[in-house]
Amino acid sequence: MSIFIPDTIKSIIGDLTYDLDTSGLSGAQVLMFSDMVLKIEKYHKDGDETVQLIKWLDGKIPVPKVICHEICGEYRYLLMGKVNGKMSCDSYYLERPNELLDLLAEALKMLWNVDISDCPRCRDLDTELEEARYRVENGLVDIEHTEPEIFGENGFASPSELLKWLESNKPSVEPVLSHGDFCLPNIFLNDGGISGFIDLGDTGVADKWRDISLCYRSLKHNFDGSFGGKVYSGFYPNMLFERLNIEPDWDKLRYYILLDELF
Fold first, then answer.
1. What pTM was computed for the model?
2. Counting CB atoms within 10 angstroms of each CB, which of 23, 104, 166, 213 has the fewest?
């Protein structure tokens, strides 16, 4: 397979071998080297903010190091350091739910402890809903891959009806640094600690319950066999709230899970 790579990046990677990572749904090409990752995607200005944010996060939380960033024609090329460790959905951690939950709670608190006063990106609800409206109006919502109860006989009639409900029922917010897609594959663990946060395209200042909600859903589906096909015992989703020492806000949990169905 022939992949065009700009000379500036070629000079860094040389003839190193790589594997193609096909696990994501973003449409980007991801080349995995032994100690680097090259992400190739169609250029969009939001990506400029993401690169700026990754650089801003360097030294605050463990994120990939930006090695080289190039725009060439219609494409963005982002070469980053590779995060060590295992995805938090690795079977090692799913078989050890207590260890996993302690680490995920630590990861959430790590995000919340970052000073957001000069954070270069805001992902508030108005921004999210504006993007959701664009997706709905342009037929970009994939209802085939949503939670089964969201649309249909006992759910919303359509993505536009869901959007209208979301716009009419905005919750109060507790602004923190939010990952934006706090799902188990995006949190890497190693040697009893957090080794890295990846896929930071939606990271910015937002309500803390956005990450809690997506973490809750991701935990539920990884343990109940929805992802991977294997059911793991010794876990129930509410254990997350016990580790965070907070009471679940079921209205916010539902709201942010519903919002995510439009993306």
1. 0.92
2. 23
